[in-house]
Structure formats: structure tokens, C-alpha cells
Amino acid sequence: MLHSATCSVVLSPNTPEQFEAMKDEKKVVVLLSGGMDSVTALYEADLQYDVVGAVSFHYGSKHNDREIPFAAFHADRLGVAHCVIHLDFIGDLFESDLLKKGGEIPKGHYEQQNMKKTVVPFRNGIMLSIAAGFAESREAHGLVIAAHAGDHAIYPDCREEFMKAMGDAIRLGTYAEVDVIRPFISMTKADIAGRGQRLGIDYAHTWSCYVGGETHCGECGTCVERREAFMIAGVPDPTTYLTTGPLPPRPVEFA
Length: 255
Known about the structure:
With 255 residues, the protein is of the alpha/beta class. The protein contains eight helices and seven strands. It has a single domain, classed as HUPs (Rossmann fold, 3-Layer(aba) Sandwich), CATH 3.40.50.620. It is globular and about 50 Å long.
């Protein structure tokens, strides 16, 4: 933003050329799952910062083996070093239906109370802590995570209070004073889909479905959120789903 005594002009960085002109040389690491949000965050970060690494975590979820190859695909496309960190203890010791040992993935709207069954306890806290150490070891001063406004209803470790506290802890606990950068914290998933279209991202090479089959199921909370995001954003959905029936309504407490 450029300021003078008489006016303010907002630069809208909607093209790669504009981003390059505004690019910060700050070194960052991106948490990259291979889903829509984190892939978009990778491209956004690549235009704004010096991305020195992307980190994926394999923690025994039903969909890790489907999403991580897409993380590798996009990191390779941008020439970013990609590291997969295995957290076997989560799959062995934690309880969640998202894990391979857990129960069936619930169907329905992503804000329904039954979606709490897919929460992996303190997942973001664990991953951010490890990624902070990884970032400082790569002489990075920033850590990019794609948490967005739609995550807050179900996931306690995506909420503003948690993210602020975690960011403070990481900054205070690293010599590099690593910042937690949340480019999408005030955006919806539809906003992210629109942003990704403008960045030219091929969302066919991303994964959302928690079931982890060969094809997106179309009915689990993450599939519903994905379908809804493309629809609201007016962006063509390149995804093949097993089911494309009517989307479930938003729960009354959030409507």
C-alpha cells in the first residue's frame, strides 16, 4: 500500500508480475498437505517470499497416501524442496476416525457435530512445532499454514486464539523468531478457490476426501466443503466424485 498526504492507493496483486514487484525476500517454509488450501498457500507464498522448503506429514490418516503425492507434484512444479516427515506415533497412539485404525468417516456438512470424530487431537500444534524446528534449521523466518475461516467451527487448533498463542510460542521459542504466517485466516474456502484460479492452479492435482479411496467420495465433510467452495466461487470443479447429489444444508447453529 502506497501512502501520501492526500491519497491511498491499494495495489491488488492479481498477476505474477505484480507479485514479483512486491516480493519479500523473507525465507519461509510451507506446510503442504496436498489439499486445495495448502497448495494455494504454496503458490501464494512462492510469489511473495523465498520458499526454502515445503513440509508434508504422514501421520497414519486414511487419505495421507492420496494427498501427499499431490504435495510433491506442486512442490516439484515450483522447484521447491519437499520433505515428508513421518509421525507414526499419531497413528499408533491417538484416537480419531480420520486415522486408518479409526471408524468410518462420517458423511454430511463439514460443520456438523459428528465431524468432530475426524479431529486428530492437537494435530496442528504438533505439526507447527516440528515445522518450526525445520524452518529454523533451514534459516527460514516464516512458517506458512493455510488455516482459513471455515476451519474454526470444528477444529480447535485452527481457531484464532490457538493460532495466535502458537505463533507467539514459536516466535519466542526460536532464535530466528519464526513467524506463523496465515494468509487465508480471514478467507473462506470459496475465496481460496477463487484465488487459486487467478493463480492458475490445477486443482485436479489436489486431494480433499478423508475416505482416501481412488476417487473422491463426494459425501464426507471435506468433499462437501470442496464441492461447495467451487460452486460458491463460480470456479469449474475438475474433481471426479462418486456421488454428486444435493449438498447437505448448513447446521442450524451456523446458518
